Amino acid sequence: MTVDTRATPASSPPPPRRGWGSRLVSGLGQLLVTVGVVLLLFVVYEVYVTDLFGQRKQAAATEAIDKQWAEQAPATDTVVVQDPAQLVTDPRQRTPQYSTLTGEGFAKLYVPAFGADYTFTVVEGTDADDLYIGPGHYADSQLPGQPGNFAVAGHRVSKGAPFNDLGLLNSCDAVVVETQDDWFVYRVLPMEEEKAGWATAAGTRPQCAAVTPLGSPYDTVAGREITVPSDYAQVLPVPHVASTEVPADAQRLITLTTCHPQFSDAERMIIHGVLTASYSKSAGFLPPELSES
């Protein structure tokens, strides 16, 4: 009989039991990884997926407004009004009137400084659903070309992000608004730090010919302001003045609002502009301001 003389290996000792502290750390690590993945997916959804959805909604709004405008023949003449106060002497003898429905487009917004392809259809309303479509008009503010304050809100990140680059605007940059019958050209007001030496410095640029720091009651209004989200006085007929009444001698302003800083809603960035020219629409005509860079 053959005897197996090979040593029998000793059985492996059982693994040491992990203490509660080790198990807690391991579980916490797994939880943090899971939370991190969920947050990453949420960021991807908020920044990229909603952006795609917003672009589709904006495209649909633009298609609808183009169809609506195509049903009305444009005017045959082009009327240039350099002084906003002269809008009332327009040959049509009217202050622009509009019929708007919440969530539907009624105007288009162009910012030449952002490139020739920058255009967004502006919808009525500033609820979440409205701003998902594109820039939204504060329903209680005035409309394009009217005395007072045409105020528009827009997302800075996600959902189409129409106002992502709003902080890049400089004084006198053109903001052009197209309606069914008219073109309105606004220009960004002087920044607060530019006001004192405006006439001999920034104000000497060619595009600033019709722009100047505004007097009372607009003397506290600047081209760019950073404020708190609850500061709705920025979109009143006279910004900073707590009244919904439009003064008889009111300026014709535009106000653009968005979140600040980027990726945060802790504050609001405000851009104020003043109407410097208007054109009656006619076939084939585009305002020369659209070609500015």
Order of helices and strands: HEEEHEEEEEEE
Q: What do the pLDDT scores average to?
A: 85
Uncertain stretches of 5 or more adjacent residues: 83-94
Counting helices, strands and paired strands, the structural category is: alpha+beta
- Counted up, domains total 1
Topology at a glance:
Blueprint: H1 20-70, E1 80-81, E2 105-110, E3 119-124, H2 128-133, E4 136-137, E5 148-153, E6 174-178, E7 182-188, E8 224-227, E9 252-260, E10 267-280
Parallel strand pairs: 3-4, 5-9
Antiparallel strand pairs: 1-10, 2-3, 2-6, 4-5, 6-7, 7-10, 8-10, 9-10
Active site: 155 (proton donor/acceptor), 259 (acyl-thioester intermediate)
Keywords: Hydrolase, Membrane, Transmembrane, Transmembrane helix
Pfam family, one: Sortase
Overview of this protein structure:
By secondary structure, the chain is an alpha+beta fold. The chain has a single domain, classed as Sortase (Sortase, Chain: A). Helix content is 19%, strand content 21%. The protein has helices at residues 20-70, 128-133, and strands spanning 80-81, 105-110, 119-124, 136-137, 148-153, 174-178, 182-188, 224-227, 252-260, 267-280. Strands 2-3-4-5-9-10-7-6 form an 8-stranded mixed β-barrel. The longest helix has 51 residues, at 20-70. Mean pLDDT is 85; it is low at 83-94.
